[in-house]
Amino acid sequence: MSSAHGSWSSPFSPASVAASSPRLDGARFVGEEIWWAESVPSEGGRVTIRSSLGEEILPAPWSARSRVHEYGGGAWTADAEGTLFFVDAGDQRVYRARRGDAPVPLTVPGPAHGGLRVQGGRLLAVREDLAVEPHRRAIVEIPTDGSAAEHAARVRVHAEGTGFFAHPSLSPDGSRIAWVGWDGARMPWDAARLRVRDLATADETEIPTRAALQPEWEDDDTLLYADDPSGRWGLHRARLARTRLEGAPVAVAPDDSDVGYGLWVLGNRWFRPLDDGRIVAVRTQGRDTVVVVDPDGSERVLPVRCDGHVSVDDATGSLVLLSGNASSAAPGVWCVDIDSGEAVAVRGGEPVDADWMPPASPLTVDGAHGPVHAFVYAPANPGQAETDELPPYVVLVHGGPTAHVTGAASAAIAFYTSRGIGVLDVNYGGSTGYGRAYRERLLGQWGVVDVDDVIAAAEGLAAAGLADPDRIAIRGGSAGGWTVLSALVRGGAFAAGISRYGVADLRMLAQDSHDFERPYLDGLVGPLSEAEELYIARSPLTHADRIDVPVLLMQGEDDRVVPPSQSEAIRDALAERGVDHDYVLYPGEGHGFRRAETIVDALERELAFLGRVFRFTPAVDEG
């Protein structure tokens, strides 16, 4: 039998989606165990550390989360003996936790920390102090004996300034340290430096780079890193005599895809050199491919399920730990033997039922600014017969905007497709994963190129006979919410919009921006002092009177990136004109929804909203 699209009965209830959506944050080999971090939606999104032996290493109420650069990352690490080091979400101090013992602070109250790394028994971190003016950040080495918990001067500072730092890396002999830094005038994917410091002499050198990522020492004289001088991030190798560069850096492998993407958080690892000279790396062209690069530069593909936002978290011998998403499996952590090819899912990674969650299909359409890439998730439900009725679709717009989607299997997407609502996930111009030229389409053109591209993708979908052109909605969060509102202002393409904590007023965003993103708008639009009229003209709030379709606005009350005032300004403008809209404010939520109860409520509201707009009655959930 067949029901109307949107009314199909589904096992993907909002509660089951919330339960299936923990965020994984890195994995480590710890002796004979494997540890990983994951969020606990039922506990307000607390981030815990778990062991492959079934033990919770970091019990409640502790939560490992960093706020460095606002987006954090690298909030935990561990040594081989089973000592956990983590940043507490509450006070941002670094703690040491040995099995069975209460966590012990290692740093003084005040500064935030992130990007933790243990090398040679030494604990490195990125430190951020927002209590001083101008704000300062540093690469630091933290004593693990607790002596710096009351005496900040006992923390060793390796590099410090008012700019930004990431990816500290000690040479194997412990005599030099490398890191990535940028001055705050541009974003790190536009320009980032790679520096090396001799810890005995304090001599420093800068290795010529365009937008460096993740330095890793192969030996005491050889540094491996990612950079994009050709327009694609690729692996490069530099040889040094102490801090003196010997010859020009050389490319290690072909650069026809990206090894790396936007440096939003501090914990990502796109490659890992192994002790035998091989390298495991992640290549991105929309989706990810994991490859093994041999010492002679040849490479082979590693046949693994994960193919989206894959991180090479750790390695020992021929074993590597990969975490990420997959187009045919649940998000997970995999332990992979690169010699035999055997891959064991340590956490998650279960194959999905293709009858309910078939792999997304890549779609490329011609746009005003060049090709536009997207992934199509067609409606899928084995209990429904085929029908001639064209389905409604929701166009998803990712945040960032310097980010990308990979066509990963997702219970949150199956929540819609299993009900007969298709999903189109768009990597509009400005997205990562397709090279610098694609990424830089958005420079000076935010609110133009992204809007043109999502409209082109939606129209291309309808032109291909895949979607009902009169029943296409658009949904996005943060920067994606900006594109949603901007597209609704443009009008004509979408029958409804869903904005989660979306940007509505560029001047307001510029005033509220934190340090990390302060130069972002300069590149995406222009400096406010020189382009204020453009800020006004581009802002959806300026033209809210043009929005004439229903809108659902959802907002976290504690959001410091896009404060509630942005959503509430749009709400007030819509209310004044009597435009159909709903506004929901979630207490205790910040920039992104983490609590199970919020995830459930948001999905319920979205489905009810679409049902009202597209005139279908959602079925009662099976799950």
Note down, in words, how this protein is organized.
With 623 residues, the chain is α+β, with helices and mostly antiparallel strands. The protein is built from 10 helices and 36 strands. The protein has an 8-stranded mixed sheet with strand order 29-30-32-31-33-34-35-36, sandwiched between helices. Strands 16, 17, 18, 19 and 20 form a 5-stranded antiparallel sheet that branches. A 4-stranded antiparallel sheet has the order 4-5-6-7, with no helix packed on it. A hairpin with a 5-residue loop joins strand 6 (94-98) and strand 7. The longest helix has 19 residues, at 596-614.
Write the layout of secondary structure elements.
Blueprint: H1 14-19, E1 24-30, E2 33-40, E3 46-51, E4 76-78, E5 83-87, E6 94-98, E7 104-105, E8 112-119, E9 122-129, E10 136-142, E11 156-161, E12 164-170, E13 176-182, E14 193-198, E15 204-207, E16 213-219, E17 222-227, E18 234-241, E19 244-245, E20 250-251, E21 271-273, E22 279-285, E23 287-293, E24 299-301, E25 306-316, E26 319-326, E27 332-337, E28 343-348, E29 361-367, E30 370-377, E31 393-397, H2 411-417, E32 422-427, H3 436-439, H4 449-463, E33 472-477, H5 479-490, E34 496-500, H6 506-512, H7 520-524, H8 528-538, E35 551-556, H9 564-577, E36 581-586, H10 596-614
Parallel strand pairs: 31-32, 31-33, 33-34, 34-35, 35-36
Antiparallel strand pairs: 1-2, 2-3, 4-5, 5-6, 6-7, 8-9, 9-10, 10-11, 12-13, 13-14, 14-15, 16-17, 17-18, 18-19, 18-20, 21-22, 22-23, 23-24, 25-26, 26-27, 27-28, 29-30, 30-32
